[in-house]
């Protein structure tokens, strides 16, 4: 009985020690965050008083793990390319292109012009407008751009009506009509006309489907050339 009383007295002494008044600043800090060391000291003292072994418990917050899911790299973007002229669904022909351009004979040359609403045409504007009239779209606007469309024709001897004849390194363009002649919008002060291909072409481009000449096509070409008789720049 005396042992129990002694033990209880010892516990009371320890509790009084732990709960002893402390300065205000220390009390505020202790209230905000209890010290792990003081907690362990109390447990050790209690163990001595009771003869038990104090168990120290440490709690560690589990580290949150983050898994990053790799994403597939976006495929490289292809560089944009110039759209090739798109022929009409019914199939345009070189003779149809010559006929479409012929509808503008006598119209004045207007720099930058590409329609009658603008008062006339320049050389590449006439080409673009005539192709559009037969349903061919996506044609570039300038002669230097048009000279890269279609496929290369080796020489004027191999040219067919409707081929594009480029002159002066891309400074001028016309539509071949056959027999060494072309229809074009020549220069300021002139009108859309049919005239000789006046210089060695820089390039000749075939922008319409390549079809072998037929007797009917040859006859149509002869009639077209006959209709141009007397039409000069």
From TrEMBL:
For the keyword Protease, the answer is yes
Q: Which UniProt keywords apply?
A: Hydrolase, Protease, Thiol protease
**A GO molecular function for this record?**
cysteine-type peptidase activity
Q: What does the record list as GO biological process?
A: proteolysis
A Pfam entry, by short name: NLPC_P60
Where do the segments described as Disordered lie?
A: 59-87
Q: Which residues form the NlpC/P60 domain?
A: 91-215
InterPro entries hit by this protein? NLP_P60_dom, Papain-like_cys_pep_sf, PG_Endopeptidase_C40
Q: Which domain of life is it from?
A: Bacteria
Q: Which family does it belong to?
A: Belongs to the peptidase C40 family.
PANTHER family in the cross-refs: NLP_P60 DOMAIN-CONTAINING PROTEIN-RELATED, PEPTIDOGLYCAN DL-ENDOPEPTIDASE CWLO
Q: Spell out the protein name for this chain.
A: Cell wall-associated NlpC family hydrolase
| Protein's organism | Cellulomonas oligotrophica
